[in-house]
Design goal:
242 residues; 5-stranded parallel β-sheet; 5-stranded mixed β-sheet; 26% strand
């Protein structure tokens, strides 16, 4: 009768909190998206795993609830944080009366804004906005409005899901909106495969970012008007007098 | 010649990543703000610690750099994430030529938006903005502008440093700006002492939040137009059809 919704960070156990590790160890079964569960198998070889493919999030969460209600201890795992475009929201929405009896633990993890930020330096070291460019569940008009508002407020911006096979030009469209308010020389960066093999990072200007091709495993960072590049680092000053 | 800038999450080692733990274990000396270092002493009793008080951030970072340049392994620790209002930015800004020879590792941690979010449920499960209400280093006019833009874009909003002895009415001022764009019934919440003894949480409406007195150890969450309260949880739906 226990359900953990666990954010395990960007990849290997090194980036997982002890709380996340303990939650997985305490569970009878671990359920998650196929690709992410494969990242965990090697570290928890004794565990039973259950996977569902992408776009089957509702079925996955319902399975986790039903299995926990049936008496098992279940860890539903998400990459990054469980509450940032994660499964915690959907599980809590789906809980019906019987689910109310469950012991629910939402276990936070290191989201890509932070893990990717650390790879680049400190791009989000002042007020920032996190925006997903995926329009699977959100109307594109609302995404555009948020990009505009975030740029208008001179926020640092972190973009999740910047691209996919069907959304090849979304990053370009986002940059075009942002550059109405931010200089084309704004310092930007991105990190691909954060914390995994073949991790890559790049620092570039907003105008360069506009013509960059990134994939769905990439997290994009757009600086504010104060953000600088210093050597290999992208840094947003907090405002200390140096 | 090695400097780790380590985010250790909200408090105890349970919320720390393995990477953060290993960085501290690998260091000859651990330096940080007095209050946070005291949280760590009990877990790393063998370590040498060096502390500096609040408002001595620049001295602390410079000490960490100088000590690392002198040949020691240093862990500069920050609560939450090292790159979200943390010390990673300041260290990278302060690096002069000699510092360029250092091996620098920015180690991400679970920031309060995520650790506090998990306590409340999933308040930031859609696009969100993180804004600090501290005007020590940022002009209040810019904070106001960002509050306005975030509210206009219907972002979920997470407020850091919502109050202090000298800024008793800042949360109220922020709510007044936000309610120009968000309904007074918007679901809000806050968490005090995240992950520590005497952790407290509360869910309330925006109009109630406006007259709530919170302290500097509190993180505040303001929902978007879709955010709901479900039982004891604050949940922002991502948009799945249920």
């Amino acid at each position: 009768m226990r359900l953990y919704i666990v954010g395990f960070g960007p990849g290997g156990t090194e980036y997982m909190t002890m709380e996340a590790r303990h939650a997985i160890e305490d569970s009878d079964v671990v359920v998650g998206y196929t690709v992410y569960v494969d990242l965990l198998r090697e570290y928890f070889q004794e565990k039973k795993f259950y996977t569902t493919p992408m776009k089957k999030e509702k079925e996955r969460c319902q399975w986790a609830i039903d299995t926990a209600v049936s008496g098992k201890r279940v860890a539903l795992v998400c990459s990054g944080d469980s509450g940032v475009y994660g499964m915690a929201g959907l599980v809590l929405e789906l809980l019906e009366e019987e689910g109310q009896k469950l012991e629910i633990y939402v276990v936070a993890g290191v989201t890509a804004a932070c893990s990717g930020g650390a790879v680049l330096g400190a791009p989000l070291n002042h007020d920032f906005a996190v925006i997903s460019l995926s329009d699977l569940l959100t109307p594109w008009e609302l995404i555009e409005k948020r990009l505009e508002c975030a740029a208008m407020g001179d926020f640092c911006i972190c973009l999740y899901n910047p691209s996919s096979r069907k959304r090849q030009d979304y990053l370009q469209r986002a940059c075009k909106i942002v550059e109405r308010y931010k200089s084309e020389n704004t310092v930007c960066g991105y990190v691909k495969n954060i914390g995994r093999e073949q991790q890559e990072k790049k620092i570039l200007t907003l105008s360069q970012l506009k013509s960059e091709q990134v994939d769905m495993f990439t997290t994009v960072f757009i600086g504010n008007s104060q953000t600088i590049q210093k050597g290999e680092w992208m840094v947003t000053p907090r405002g200390y007098q140096l």
